[in-house]
Amino acid sequence: MPLLYNLVLTDTTWHRLQHASFFFTALLFWWSLFYGPARLRGDGVAVGCLFFTSLHSAILGIFLTLARQPWYPQQEELAEFCGLTPLEDQQLAGLVMWVPPGLIYLSFGLFFAARWISHASGGESMEGHHAFVGH
């Protein structure tokens, strides 16, 4: 959405609102995995949520990283400020969007999967589970 993207590049208030929306939706996502309705449905739902969330962030990060031309040439001034070309800036942003979150999603996905398997095999009581998530 180039119109909105240009707006956040030129208006500090909109830029801050953009990042606040990222932060609060991330808090809502993680809260739902540990405490919300998804938590009540079990660890399998958490694994699925993490898998599908990792897909969309990874795919976008991969596309940004492997693109042969900048998607947002408006970034030129900010990229130059950091000593990068617009394409290098985009590729770096793609890697940041792809790799660290992917590792976080994988780690928590493995955590929830292990807990799911443990519960399925009768290895841990639900009381221990509730102690972990603060219930």
Please characterize this protein's 3D structure.
With 135 residues, the protein is mostly helical. Helices cover 81% and strands 0% of the residues. It has one domain. α1 crosses α2 and α4 packs antiparallel against α6. It is elongated and about 60 Å long. The termini are far apart.
Helix-strand layout with pairing:
Blueprint: H1 2-10, H2 12-34, H3 37-41, H4 43-66, H5 76-81, H6 86-120, H7 126-133
**What is the straight-line distance between the termini?**
41 Å
**What is the share of helical residues?**
over 70%
Shape: elongated
**What's the tally of helices?**
7
Number of strands: 0
Query: Strand portion, in percent?
Result: under 5%
Mean pLDDT: 86
Radius of gyration: 19 Å
Low-confidence sequence ranges = none
What composes the largest sheet?
A: none
Order of helices and strands: HHHHHHH
Structural class assignment: mainly alpha
Number of domains: 1
Fill in the keyword field for this structure:
135 residues
Gist?
The chain is mostly helical. It is built from seven helices and no strands.
